[in-house]
Write a structure and sequence with these properties.
mainly alpha; 2 helices; 0% strand; rod-shaped
Length: 76
């Protein structure tokens, strides 16, 4: 459809304007699509890590607090 419009113009400035409008629209569509894909990947990652996030606080409560006592040297 764009090509048909481009073939129908009579003046160079009309062709340049038509091409500029097409490029602007194509860029806006590209940005919208990449934003949507980025949000989809972000949501996928959040969903994938939910089980780990839910298990993490329970595991931390079950473990003993870190000790400040020196570690004994291992005898050979």
């Amino acid at each position: 459809m764009h090509f048909e419009k481009l073939m129908g113009v009579k003046k160079l400035d009309e062709a340049i304007q038509l091409q500029s409008d097409f490029a602007k629209t194509a860029y806006e569509d590209f940005v919208a699509e990449t934003t949507m894909i980025g949000e989809m990947y972000s949501n996928l990652a959040k969903e994938a890590f939910k089980p780990f996030k839910a298990a993490s606080p329970a595991r931390q409560r079950a473990s003993a607090p870190p000790s400040n006592a020196p570690v004994a040297a291992k005898q050979i």
